[in-house]
Amino acid sequence: MKKEYVYKAFERFWHWAQAALIIFLGVTGFEIHGSIRFFGFDQAVRYHNVAAISFIILIVFAIFWHLTTGEWRQYMPTWKNLRAQAEYYVFGIFRNAPHPTRKTVLSKLNPLQKLVYAGLKVLVIPVMVVSGLLYMFYRYPQHNEILSLNIGSLEVIAVLHTIGAFLLVSFFIAHLYLGTTGRTVTSNLKAMITGYEELEEDSVDNKAQPVSHEPVLTK
Amino acid sequence: MHSTHWNWERTEYVEGKGIRAIGKRNVLNNFCIGISGNQQSCNRCHIGYGYADASFNFNDSLNVDCLACHDNSATYLKAIGGAGLPDSSVNLSFVAQHVGKPQRTNCGTCHFFGGGGNNVKHGDLEMSMFDPSRDVDVHMASEGSDMQCVDCHSAQKHQMLGKMYSVSSMNRGRVECEHCHSAMPHTDDVLNDHTLKVACQTCHIPTYAKVNPTKLFWDWSTAGRLRNGEPFEEKDSAGTDVYMSIKGSFVWGKNIKPDYIWFNGTASHYLVGDTLDPSRPLQLNVLYGSYDDPDAKIYPVKIHRAKQIYDTQYRYLIQPKTVSTKPGDGGYWAEFNWDRAAEEGMKQVNLPYSGHYGFVQTEMYWPVNHMVSPKSQAVQCGECHTRENGRLANLSGFYLPGRNYNPWVEFLGVGLLVLTLAATVVHGSVRFLMNRKRKGSN
Known about the structure:
- The complex is a heterodimer of chains A (219) and B (442).
- Chain A is mostly helical.
- Chain A has one domain: Transmembrane di-heme cytochromes, Chain C (Fumarate Reductase Cytochrome B subunit, Up-down Bundle).
- Chain A has 6 helices and 4 strands; from the N terminus they run E-H-H-H-H-E-E-H-H-E.
- In chain A, the strands form 2 sheets. Chain A has a two-stranded antiparallel ribbon with strand order 1-4. A two-stranded parallel sheet of chain A has the order 2-3.
- The two termini of chain A are 29 Å apart.
- In chain B, 20% of the residues lie in helices and 17% in strands.
- In chain B, strands 5, 6, 7, 8, 9, 11, 13, 14 and 15 form a 9-stranded mixed beta sheet that branches.
- The model of chain B has no long low-confidence stretch (mean pLDDT 94).
- Chain B is built from 11 helices and 15 strands.
- The A-B interface holds A 32-34, 40-42, 45-46, 49, 89, 93-96, 139-143, 152-155, 158-159, 162-163, 165-167, 169-170, 173-174, 176-177, 180-181, 216, 218-219 and B 190, 193, 196-197, 292, 294-295, 380-382, 385-387, 398-399, 401-406, 409-410, 412-414, 416-417, 420-421, 423-424, 427-428, 430-431, 434-435, 437-438, 441.
């Protein structure tokens, strides 16, 4: 085991700011949706709009960081070991089997993470940003003038935004739980706070073998 | 002479009916129903002298009663049942020395008491408006802007701005809030966006009939009960009439949340002689508009419901003669005989009466425009943007955030959350148990 600097300062700031914003957007958003009551509708709208703009600013910085550092490559989805990773969560994890992919500074995401995070980045977040901006800036059709966008009905925009919101909350729950499946229950959390994580050192074979289908047997 | 106050009709385009002269002369309502045959009493509120029947000469300017509107002494009074003639108690030379621009008292004397009593018709125009507090009407309050009716209802050559859709049908000559306020009056952009689809009144008149009750339901079918051969009246604990032998039973309401409709400024009307379907409530005035109509906005209305007399054979509303001016003239309020009242009333509108009558449910839609509250009392966002029992619960055809949702997305979305949560709990528990077992077996 070797302590490595895995998550850079900006990366950690981005992660936690994004977490706070998404939680806050979720609470205010589902209040606007009518599911919960907390701030009151008018305040929820006001806060949601401010948080949304903040989130967009954060996204712009995050994109810049990912592009300039080349870190975006971490998220390139791959088929390799995808099945092995899924099988690990279904079988291996219960038997204390090793993670099928090794975490390194240059490859910190397992294949399932790559797939899910890439999906969030290219699909869910863009849909949320675009539908959210339309939600904010659309205008009903009017006579003789076009004020920004004329859209006849809010329904499609709102429903898309709601679908995205459900996906994000679902991701949030799964993300919290899977965060506990690191080397120890809190090792991932500590790493995201301090930036440092104990990683396996380079060994002979840094590509772990897929786990077999053997049923779990008691010894 | 062109004033609607004088002619009691306007030439207007009425949807589905073409260009028609409509007004109090030929439109029926579901309060006292109509003036035909009853001019002697109703026309106390006409700005003329002696409009006692249909033969009244509208071309003679000497018949115009200027004082009804221009008396500033507050002593002018028209005689009850006098067809517009002044009461004998009035000192006309004193009144003539005190004329001027119309005051609230001039307008209110008729407009606050339409339908035979205070606040019967409008709900937002009644005697408290002679001197309202700021909470009742922020514009007319003497401790506020102290505005007079004619400050908004301005006139050129006696043609007043503003009209009521009980008797008018075109989108013209209306008083608009934007005549004084801007179309984007809020500091909050989100609120300003609302002005495209929501009329100012909708948020700024949270309730009407704030001080005194207004009539919500009028059942003519119960009229005519007598005690010892005499008509009688019953009042509720607040002193409001709930039954009158001459008029039937009433339901009143105070501090009422308005109903809301899409309205584009055009309306159509039931006109004397139109056939009706007695199996469902008849809308005497239909206010047009929908979400998809770029001219339409959400407006607050008072809906007045009634059961009123109609001819079951010819299937049209009956204009009954209610007022009696001489014995045997058929006036219902003296003889309590619907057949005679129908017969005599229908003669006045030149339509046959079959001899068979019944009572049909009718509705009238009265836009609520007055009793604007101070902004601190405006309707709050959550009163409409809510899933249950919102103010706009009955308006359909559009997506209202906080009220609407797609049931499939909701079902699948909540299902996804439940499954995710369940999966993590099950997975976590198994992990924990297996881990303990492994440790135990070591």
